[in-house]
Design brief:
This protein is mostly helical and 577 residues long. The chain has helices spanning 3-16, 20-39, 47-65, 69-88, 94-115, 126-146, 155-160, 168-175, 189-196, 227-247, 259-263, 266-298, 322-326, 331-336, 340-351, 363-377, 381-403, 420-438, 440-444, 447-456, 460-473, 475-487, 491-508, 511-514, 518-522, 535-576; strands at residues 208-211, 214-217, 305-306, 311-312. It has a two-stranded antiparallel ribbon. Helix 5 crosses helix 16 (363-377).
Length: 577
């Protein structure tokens, strides 16, 4: 590290009582804003200027601020190794070779960190390497797709396919793009290339651009204005970081391992985990919001114009939605709004890629995606405890939506019933408490600490999840619930609900089944934390059962209708007589 930077940051860290490395990381986030303002104003006709600038800033971050010489070597090995494999391996197995190379290299560093842990709050290169694994494994698949016939590709595969290997300088700029170097977000090379050659923006010198919902003439500038949007995102990130620092004085993961915590009441212990889980998330909210703001300022986050509002969208690399997460009423919503780009990567380049062509993703796809997500995060037992608990959370959540929620709706399932508010409050509190419980091992990491934390609250969430799984897996229980639902649901409403379920199932199917249109690809439910949503697997069986039940109801309806018509005719005949 440069001595003047080290002494300056050390003095500030000592004065505010904060570790030096997190303060350095915070400095890189803030520095990225003025540097991105410079980046977007470099000559449009000289991309080499942007490339040299990006590589220089990233080198300054790694060496000048963090002194990560070994880290630079690690990223270089992964990057150059991937480029070499993509260039010389012509086999269809090339992307899998790249994937195994990257994951193997990352796992070696994870194992090394596990047996040789760093002191708390120290920044190392594994975070940046995790981001790079997503980018480079996607790069390998993009090169592979560029070598395949276009007829075999889905829409998103065609969009991201690379028919030629990019120049090494372009590739290295993609790898060392400084706004997202250390914590993400990740993105595909095709998106980066469109940013570099400005085809992403498609704006001419005389074009009108929407600004705050109004149309006005602008000067000759390829990258649209994004200063205000980036500033708002930066303020949001600063707010989360400030709140994280404040709550750190009253909340601590060490406290839940203490005897003092175990001496408190059971109600206090389970409620304490809720704000503690929120405290854990704050640093991620802050870091991802700040890095996203820098990407917005650089122009990379540009995602076209919303036709409804006529405003530009800047959510191409959005990685977190704090509001939706903190107000989520079910597990799927929480996982869907957390680390969103990782979920996209798991879906597009793992979950769907391991699925045989022409088949629907099944258990094997789910299992491989789960393992990938787990190994990608690390080798600490805490990660696996959280992921396994997450699998039960999703399964129980689906059961609750399918067998309990309908009782709080109107008989035709189209509107909320009189007690739906109570259901919403209960599911909100239950979901948030469950997530707060599940994420403790993710932070504590060790098996003993994780068990101690869960033991302090008597494993109450696991007991509840296991109970729900047993109850809703029992065929007599499911049969009785369905009978009650059938009794209160009219035949016509069931037909409408069935039609809705069929359309939903079709929308959720993999692109390999549907041909890969935009609706089937872009809006496919993504694996969350490596565990895909199981509604797809359940939909076929559920529809078959509902069809059989519907046929029976329709036959009864026809018989009753014919009998009613016959009786009506008899009454009319008697009256005439």
């Amino acid at each position: 590290m440069l001595k003047f930077v080290d002494s300056f940051m050390g003095g500030i860290a000592k004065s505010i009582g904060m570790p030096t490395d997190p303060l350095k990381l915070f400095l890189t986030f803030l520095l990225s804003y003025p540097l991105c303002a410079v980046l977007k104003r470099l000559p449009d006709t000289k991309p080499i200027y942007k490339q040299i600038f990006c590589l220089s800033v990233s080198t300054f971050y790694l060496l000048g601020i963090f002194s990560l010489w070994d880290g630079l070597k690690t990223l270089s090995i992964s990057s150059l190794g991937t480029y070499t494999l993509a260039k010389y391996v012509k086999s269809p197995l090339m992307p899998w070779v790249v994937f195994l190379f990257l994951m193997g290299h990352l796992t070696i560093n994870h194992v090394d960190r596990y047996f040789n842990p760093l002191w708390e709050s120290q920044v190392d290169i594994t975070g940046a390497q995790m981001v790079l694994v997503m980018k480079l494994s996607a790069f390998g698949w993009n090169i592979h797709d560029g070598r395949r016939p276009a007829a075999e590709l889905s829409s998103i595969q065609k969009d991201r396919a690379l028919t030629t290997l990019p120049p090494i300088i372009d590739y290295l700029t993609y790898v060392f793009f400084f706004p997202s170097l250390l914590v993400g977000p990740s993105f595909d090379y095709a998106e980066f290339r469109r940013w570099l050659d400005f085809s992403m923006f498609d704006v001419g010198s005389t074009a009108t651009q929407p600004t705050n919902g109004k149309l006005r003439k602008v000067r000759n500038r390829k990258i649209p204005r994004s200063g205000r949007v980036a500033a708002r995102k930066a303020l949001e990130g600063l707010f989360w970081i400030g709140l994280w620092i404040c709550l750190g004085t009253v909340l601590s993961p060490k406290y839940i391992l203490s005897n003092e915590f175990r001496a408190r009441s059971f109600l206090f212990r389970i409620i304490y985990l809720w704000p503690l889980g929120f405290y854990y998330r704050l640093k991620y909210y802050g870091a991802w919001s700040l890095s996203e703001g820098a990407c917005i300022l650089s122009g990379l986050s540009y995602n076209g114009v919303d036709p409804a509002s006529n405003k530009r969208k800047w959510d191409r690399v959005k990685n977190i939605d704090p509001y939706r997460f903190e107000t989520g009423q079910n597990t799927y919503t929480l996982l869907e709004t957390w680390n969103m780009n990782t979920n996209k990567w798991l879906k597009t380049y793992v979950y769907l890629r391991v699925t045989p062509k022409g088949k629907k993703p099944g258990f094997n796809s789910t299992f491989i995606t789960f393992l990938t997500s787990a190994f990608w995060h690390g080798v600490s037992p805490g990660y696996y405890l959280t992921f396994l608990t997450g699998a039960f959370m999703q399964s129980s959540g689906r059961a609750a939506r399918r067998y309990i929620r309908p009782f709080f709706l109107t008989p035709d399932l189209s509107q909320a019933g009189p007690y739906k508010t109570y259901y919403d409050v209960f599911t909100y509190v239950g979901t948030q408490l469950t997530m707060a419980y599940a994420v403790q091992p993710f932070i504590l990491l060790t098996f003993n600490d994780s068990m101690r934390a869960w033991r302090a609250v008597y494993f109450y969430i696991h007991v509840g999840l296991f109970t729900m799984t047993v109850i809703f897996s029992a065929k007599p229980v499911k049969k009785q619930i369905k009978a009650k639902l059938s009794a209160r649901t009219q035949t016509v409403s069931k037909l409408e609900q069935l039609r809705f379920e069929i359309e939903t199932a079709r929308a959720k199917r993999a692109p390999s089944e549907l041909g890969g249109g935009p609706a089937s690809e872009e809006y496919l439910h993504e694996p969350s934390l490596g565990i895909p949503d199981g509604d797809i697997e359940e939909s076929v069986e559920a529809i078959q059962m509902d069809l059989a039940e519907l046929r029976s109801d329709l036959e009864q309806f026809k018989r009753r209708t014919s009998m009613a018509v016959g009786d009506a005719r008899k009454r009319v005949s008697k009256r005439k007589v």
